[in-house]
Amino acid sequence: EVKVPAASRVEVETYSAPVTTSGLAGTFRGESVLGGFRLEGRLAEAEVETVGGSIELAGSAGGARLESVNGAVTVRGVTRSLEASTVTGTVQRSKVTAPSPDVPRW
Q1: How far apart, in whole angstroms, are the C-alpha atoms of residue 18 and residue 96?
Q2: SS3 per residue for the chain
Q3: What is the pLDDT along the chain (106 residues), one digit of tens a residue?
Q4: CA distance linking residue 53 with residue 103, whole number of Å
């Protein structure tokens, strides 16, 4: 467990571990080979890439770019901009009010 001030800029790289955030209000950037991400809070920005894992983003007030090769991408609450993609998985979104979300359909 790592604790940082809420408005921090956080960058995480993992090989085989899940990542969970809670209460973060700054920016988040994460990369993983075999691990998923669960991000909760009012993030200013989120950028996540994973090869083998799912991505769940809940409550972002800013923009998000989320990419998974083998896993689902679930987004709730993005209000500025959204780019979400997966190769073998689903993209689900709710409460997304971004003007023109770019969500590729595979």
Answers
A1: 25
A2: CCCCCCCCEEEEEECCCCEEECCCCCEEEEEECCCCEEEECCCCEEEEEECCCCEEEECCCCEEEEEECCCCEEEECCCCCEEEEECCCCEEEECCCCCCCECCCC
A3: 889 999 999 999 999 999 999 999 999 999 999 999 999 988 999 999 999 999 999 987 688 999 999 999 999 887 788 899 999 999 998 887 765 545 554 4
A4: 18
Query: Cβ distance 28 to 47 under 8 Å?
Result: yes
CA 84/CA 78 separation, integer angstroms? 11
Euclidean distance between CA atoms 3 and 73, whole angstroms: 25
